[in-house]
Amino acid sequence: MTGGRLRTKAQSPDGYRALAGLTRAGHPDHALAEIVKLRASRLNNCRHCVEVHTEAGRRVGLDDEHIAATADWEASGRFDPRECAALALTDLLTRTETLARAGDVGAAPVWEAADAAFPGDELVQLVLTIAGINTWNRMMIAEAVAADG
User: pTM value?
Assistant: First the structure.
């Protein structure tokens, strides 16, 4: 460790490759994945990842209003039911105060909506996307990667 921060790619190439593999196992709908990644990155206050996924979102066709709406998706009215299900699950699995209760009966409507919107393997791919971005957020924060702007 230099300067009190990590350099994961250099210090643990196997760990870095494993995390990259988790990312590749995520949801194949790139626009949806970027919406989820933006939302989790906002919740985790990872400015670097917000910038990265803002640009990635634009590359997959998201407009600036859609990108900005990830900050308050429930009030925005900009997301379709499938995206809302993904965002609700992202909130549930990202916010530490709800994560511990993700298996509780009160979380059932979120899981039911996600299950209905993401049939077959899609739900696990979505959960992998959420888990992956949460891990990347934490790694970027731990490494003190600064936002470019």
Answer: 0.89
